[in-house]
Write a structure and sequence with these properties.
- The chain is mainly α and 118 residues long.
- The chain has four helices and no strands.
- Helix 1 runs antiparallel to helix 2.
Length: 118
């Protein structure tokens, strides 16, 4: 087992990406290379950066990858607003993304604080 697999924030990020994949399946075909792809890549980036950060040898490097993961969380939130405005996302799905993103953000911040960063 890799170190990152023990992290609850990583497990939640996998679930988050899975949810984003599920809801974007219903997006219009013309968004396949647009918003669908953007949201999926940003969602996958969260767990990827958490995992990559654990392989770094310094806390500074690890913290930087957690910052990048947090940025990807914010990307998905921003993109979900656009998807909602175009009626690709229901209000309920948007709220689910938003709530899950808030939790991811809090968990990433907590992990950064545990490394000694504010």
């Amino acid at each position: 087992m890799f170190n990152f697999e023990k992290l609850e924030v990583w497990k939640k990020s996998i679930d988050f990406a899975d949810f984003v994949y599920s809801i974007t399946r219903a997006f219009p075909d013309e968004e396949r290379f647009g918003l669908t792809s953007q949201m999926r890549r940003a969602a996958v980036s969260i767990s990827s950066n958490i995992a990559e950060g654990t392989s770094r040898h310094t806390k500074d490097d690890y913290a930087r990858f957690l910052e990048i993961a947090a940025g990807s969380v914010f990307e998905v939130v921003s993109q979900s607003f656009i998807a909602q405005k175009h009626n690709y996302l229901s209000d309920q799905d948007h709220q689910c993304i938003y709530s899950a993103a808030e939790e991811q953000s809090r968990m990433l911040s907590g992990l950064r604080r545990s490394l000694g960063f504010a």
